[in-house]
Amino acid sequence: MNTRQLGFGALAGLAAAMGLGRFVYTPILPLMQEQTGMSPGSTAIVATFNYLGYFLGAFALAIWPRLARSTALLRASLLALVASEVAMVLSVNVPLWSAVRLIAGLASAVVFVYCAGAVAGTAAAGVAFCGVGVGIAASGLLVVGLGEVVGWRALWWVSALATAVFGVFAWRLPPGGPGTVARPDGAAPPRPGIAGWAIGISYFLEGLGYIVLGTFLVAAVAVGGRPWEGPAAWVTVGLAAAVSPLIWARLRRYRSAETLLVIALLLQVVSAVLPALVRGPVSAAVSAVLFGGTFIGAVMLSMEVGARIGVPRSAAVLTTGYGIGQILGPLVVAPMLGDGYDAAFLTAGGVLVAAAVLAAVARWTAPDRVAVGS
Description:
Strand content: under 5%
Number of helices: 13
Helix content: over 70%
Number of strands: 0
Radius of gyration: 19 Å
Largest sheet: none
């Protein structure tokens, strides 16, 4: 398989796993609440089970890394994603939805790790990570185009079909290698010290803060606005996320990963607090662009920082903390949702400020700091 085929296959897999299989719940959520009468607190619980599934899947693959290169498991997970979306229409039932979204989380973690491993260290990686944004944009376009003419059940059926289409293109994606990354100079990795703790806690807080926007941005924008504004904001998130990996990779030529991570997190603070402070479609669009343009970048940059400063098993350790943050995020803000989303978004902004401060600490205290661009 050549580089172009590899990149496109991984892009399709990430679009199926993340943009649709995992995050399609976000643009459909306002319609589900309106047409079923489910409270924001109940839908937050459903979201939490999805994040729990993702955490459990990533943690299992960290313990048994061979599973992360299993083509059979990839294909089973793609099928599970489609089945989980179909199962959402069976009943209006929070326990059922929670179980279904737990399975979707597990499956999306498997597909994400497999696809990321398939392109690791290759020229296809930048293109592949654009798939997250492509899938998010696709999920938003489905709701923009169909949300006013069909019910929430029909949207889940259409999203299942779209996930299946992307899954077909990822079906034959070959696995990556075991993938250990050595330092360029061949030296032993430095001891992470304070910087290791700082980046670990920062990434945990990023997971906690960003997931509030990732779960409730569409619902918040839809309150008091026209029906298309919420899904349109999600399309904007997806389009920004689709190009952001290429932008951050280019910026990385001129600045250190630590510096860029601080910038990304501060921009994400703005994306969190803006909808709470300023109403209207312009504010929603700016927030969506900033959110979509930073959350994939924060993942890429945090992983690079953790590996460079010598965090032991950095990918597994950081992903575990990030996953725990995602689980806690909806639970932390659920009691705040009775009177709207402003308090939840301001809380997320505060959490992201703390994440940015700790990323700055990691920058200042990192062992063996890179002099150029730092």
